[in-house]
Design brief:
Helix content is 39%, strand content 23%. The protein is of the alpha/beta class and 285 residues long. It has a nine-stranded mixed beta sheet, sandwiched between helices. Strands 6-7 form a two-stranded antiparallel sheet. The longest helix has 17 residues. The model has no long low-confidence stretch (mean pLDDT 95). The structure holds 3-hydroxy-5-(hydroxymethyl)-2-methylisonicotinaldehyde.
Length: 285
């Protein structure tokens, strides 16, 4: 049965600048009727694409908060995880899923990198541990960089094959591999094909490809917005393919609302202006 007010643990960082992670996830989930319960992995002045960002790792606080949640018998209908400040936090998230995941929808956004490169904060060890965490997920939302990292594929080769063939088949094959290895539903985000951005969905009901026009720019936080809309939609009873479409359309609307603003893309997208009817699911009004 679908809950009227599903409650979700949201494990991600809080970046003051960059419209990403908890800042977008809490807003999106709240609008969708999901109660977000934040478990911050780190606090940052800015997301990591800025020079001289300040980051404070909250691993110790995560442990303390999660153990207090357990002591007080807290329960969740869903768990969504994102950015980790250190590879040791991946194990912590696995423990949280073990402790709280029974009956909950677990979405792991394997935040590792973008455009073929790993983020500064991600090491080879983070990738190795993320592969293990992926095995505990019901849903995974890698971009192409993360899909390649998780499946051991070469990014340049895969992106080249996509460009050469003009289709998503090379990414689809890697997504099938990831699905076979983890058993999770897979949504691959933002695969660039010509002048479109495609999102792939794979689950027990089959495979799908949705596409949106490529508007340009590489904005911070769009992956976090995508995974949050997808998660909210699934928690509200949506199927994978429809939820992927809802998420892709919302991110596209947010990008459209931003392009031409002149704002540095590292500050993210103006999703606030489109955070309304389109992604709401009216089962709790
Ligand atoms: O959007 C992914 C993300 C989340 N959190 C932080 C980041 C990034 C991507 O760069 O730096 C802190």
């Amino acid at each position: 049965m679908i809950k009227k007010y599903p409650r979700a643990a949201v494990i991600n960082d809080l970046s003051g600048m960059g419209r990403c992670s908890l800042a977008v996830s809490i807003a999106v989930l709240s609008v969708m009727g999901v109660t977000p319960c934040a478990l911050p992995t780190a606090v940052l002045s800015h997301q990591t694409a800025f020079e001289n960002y300040y980051s404070h790792d909250l691993s110790r606080e995560m442990e303390l908060i999660a153990s207090r949640w357990a002591d007080m018998g807290e329960r969740f209908d869903g768990i969504i995880s994102g950015y980790v400040a250190h590879h040791a936090q991946v194990e912590l998230i696995e423990k949280i899923i073990d402790d709280f995941g029974g009956g909950a929808l677990v979405l792991v956004d394997p935040v590792l990198g973008d455009n073929g490169a790993l983020y500064h904060s991600c090491s080879r060890e983070t990738v190795t541990r993320m592969r293990s965490l992926a095995g505990k997920a019901d849903v995974l939302t890698p971009n192409l960089t993360e899909l390649c990292a998780l499946t051991g594929a070469d990014y340049d080769e895969t992106a080249g094959d996509i460009a050469h063939s003009g289709g998503v088949q090379p990414a689809l094959e890697l997504a099938r591999k990831l699905r076979a290895e983890t058993g999770a539903k897979i949504a691959v985000t933002g695969v660039s094909v010509g002048n479109t951005l495609c999102n792939l969905s794979l689950d027990e009901n089959g495979e799908g490809v949705t596409s949106n026009e490529k508007i340009g720019g590489c904005f911070s936080g769009t992956g976090d917005i995508f995974s949050s809309v997808l998660f909210g939609s699934l928690l509200m009873g949506g199927d994978l393919q429809g939820s992927v479409k809802r998420a892709g359309d919302f991110v596209t609307a947010a990008i459209k609302n931003t392009v031409g603003s002149g704002e540095d893309p590292r500050y993210g997208v103006r999703f606030e202006g489109v955070l309304r009817g389109d992604i709401r699911i009216k089962n709790n009004e």
